[in-house]
Amino acid sequence: MEKSNTMKIRLSLLAxxxxxxxxxxxxxxxxxxxxxxxxxGLKGKKVGLVTNPSGIDRNLRSTIDxxxxxxxxELKAGKSYRxxxxxxxxxxxxxxxxxxxxxxxxxxxxxxxLTATSEAQTVIFETSQQKDASLVIQFSLGSAAAGNTxxxxxxxxxxxxETPGDNxxxxxxxxxxxxxxxxDAGYDTGLTxxxxxxxxxxxxxxxxxxxxxxxxxxxxxxxLTAGKQYRIRYNLEADEAFDFNVFYNNGAEEKAVGExxxxxxxxxxxxxxxxxxxxx
Length: 280
Description:
The protein is built from two helices and 18 strands. By secondary structure, the chain is mainly beta. A four-stranded mixed sheet has the order 1-10-5-8, with no helix packed on it. It has a four-stranded antiparallel sheet with strand order 4-9-6-7, with no helix packed on it. Strands 2-3 form a two-stranded antiparallel ribbon. It is globular.
């Protein structure tokens, strides 16, 4: 017997079928009816979709894309949120989560390097929004094997209460600490520090330059406590627009406190993230 090349993905406790309905002599796909009714039947519910390549509307737009564009949770600028989900799989599978801003992949953030196993794990992501966003959570599987079952459940989105905190960074930005730069061979860089800022100038790059080969480290001296929440805020300005990532390290271990990808620098802006370390 030929082995079935299928994978089942359950994204919530509720599954539903989209049936075609007839309006006079015209037959419309159920997803079009649902969309035209403003997705009223789904409001307030946790919804999962089981579909296949034939799940499209009359304009060949997939059911997945139509549902992803449906009005849902709106994240507001200036607010902080905790997004959590339980993930498990019958067979081990690597995956990543992209927190999309409607049509912009990773517009809210992303979590990389995750692995689903037979033991359910809770993945927590926290964000402080710099602009309004319509949240879509995307689970991307790597090395997906036939016959595996991946289950995502207990999705929760919480708005974090605004509480003032103490400034834990007591050291000023001086020439000897806590800022330094690392760059790959062939890059010429210069670092200038004042009591309140650090400026990095890249004067030349190698002809065969690769991305992510210049890093600026800020040794804050702040001691973070496991289980507590911290808001990290700084101003960033660049002469020319460029993409950057931010890793919050715990000294020896990169990304141990948090990681944020696909950010863009240009004119002066304030960058803000909320982290909750799992260990001191």
